Amino acid sequence: MSSDHAIEAEGLGKRYRLGAPGEQYQYRTLRDTLANLARAPFRRRTGPRAEASFLWALRDANFVIQHGQAVGFIGRNGAGKSTLLKLLSRITEPTEGRAVVRGRMASLLEVGTGFHPEMTGRENIFLSGVILGMTRGEIRRKLDEIVAFAEVEKFVDTPVKRYSSGMYVRLAFAVAAHLEPDILLVDEVLAVGDLQFQKKCLSKMQDVGTSGRTVLFVSHNMPAITRLCSRAILLDQGRIVADGSAEEVVHKYFVTAAGASAVRLWTDPATAPGVEGFKLRAVALMDGAAPATVAQVDEPHELVIRYATQRPDMRFRLVAAFNSQGVCAFPALQPREILHAQPGTFEARVMLPANLLAEGEYNVDISVFASRGKKSHFCRVPDAIAFQAVDPMTGESVRGDYAEGLAGVMRPQLEWRQSPWPEDADPTGGLG
């Protein structure tokens, strides 16, 4: 064990029991006992009671997190992410292994975790601060900032049991982020808030991470993971399957868990899409010489399409439709039909310039058609490939030093010019 480590986990695991009605409850009421006694004769007549089964929500988790690291935990629903954070925050006890946590920890795992419903918002702020080991003076200095961030100024002296779920989560996050914990644990609970508040939370978490405090973040928002975290841990069926840089782990998650691939190959011409005389053989998004399942938005990439023709004098054109968020972001269309006088295998490449795409998930549909006279499709392959566009947050992309979310499925880099306007000139002059 090293004092340089904020968190150390060794063989950490959590098992839950399924089935065996009544046995999972530690306490029983008189009504439960009487009901069980009444059912007992019937249980004996219908045979032995079903055996309890067990589920390992987390198994054999081993990792070390340094002070000041921002680490994202990703994986499918049920992979064990929330269970891991509950173990680290001591909400539940491990079945096996142990975890060592050094420093004051604040966790936001469920709406209103740690709040007393009968106490007001103000009282819960002081209660949370005391639990974190802060003095009343420290809490008072942060009070106005917390209330303003949560946007509950009018309701700060109202019992939190009367808060809406949005108000609850706003105040809970504000308390967790502003009372300066050494370690901040945040689950996907931020999705309860509206879009504007989610942006505020992500910006605040980025400030917390850059201030030298440790952040553990669970999310299905991959751009947020790559933007906020330098490291990510991928869980699948309760086990850690990848641990490394955020971009590398997001890449693996997107390829395996999400079933996406930046390369599509058809090795058997008989099953390749197409028609008689034409077959698609490969589609790939390339970053130099390597496939780019995770594409940095500030770098150029190439879409490569390979196909084979078996007849002479074939004319057609290729179209690649880039789709994101359920809409076509843009099509890449060959401007003219291509004539292939002789049969053979050919390759078409189209360059995607840097700073064209927005962050997010993209899939590419490939169409091949002839348009002389009536348009006729040779073939169409929906979702031929898929990839994740991420912003490395170096300041070189379209967003510059702007850290919050940006809307849209495209983000072209446009030229901006700035110049002073004469003080004695009409600001509307020459424009209309």
Summarize the model shown.
This protein is an alpha+beta fold and 432 residues long.
Key attributes of the depicted protein:
2 domains; single chain; Rossmann fold; 6-stranded mixed β-sheet; 8 helices; 21 strands; alpha+beta; 432 residues; 35% strand; 6-stranded antiparallel β-sheet; Coagulation Factor XIII, Chain A, domain 1
Number of E-state strands: 21
What share of residues is helical?
Answer: 10-25%
CATH architecture tag of the largest domain: 3-Layer(aba) Sandwich
Tell me, rounded to a whole number, the average pLDDT.
83
Describe this entry's structure for a reader.
The chain is an alpha+beta fold. It folds into 2 domains: 5-256, Rossmann fold; 263-390, abc- transporter (atp binding component) like domain (Coagulation Factor XIII, Chain A, domain 1). It is 23% helix and 35% strand. It has 8 helices and 21 strands. The protein has helices spanning 30-45, 81-88, 121-131, 136-150, 165-178, 195-210, 222-228, 246-256, and strands at residues 5-18, 53-66, 70-74, 96-101, 105-108, 183-186, 214-218, 231-236, 239-245, 263-265, 274-275, 278-287, 290-291, 294-296, 301-309, 314-324, 327-333, 338-340, 344-352, 360-370, 376-390. The strands form 4 sheets. A 6-stranded mixed sheet has the order 5-6-7-3-8-9, sandwiched between helices. Strands 10, 11, 12, 13, 15 and 19 form a 6-stranded antiparallel sheet that branches. Strands 14, 16, 17, 18, 20 and 21 form a 6-stranded mixed sheet that branches. A hairpin with a 2-residue loop joins strand 11 and strand 12. Helix 4 (136-150) crosses helix 5 and helix 5 (165-178) runs parallel beside helix 6. The longest helix is centred in the N-terminal third of the chain and has 16 residues, at 30-45. The radius of gyration is 28 Å and the shape is globular. The N and C termini lie far apart (71 Å). The model is unreliable at 46-51 (pLDDT under 50).
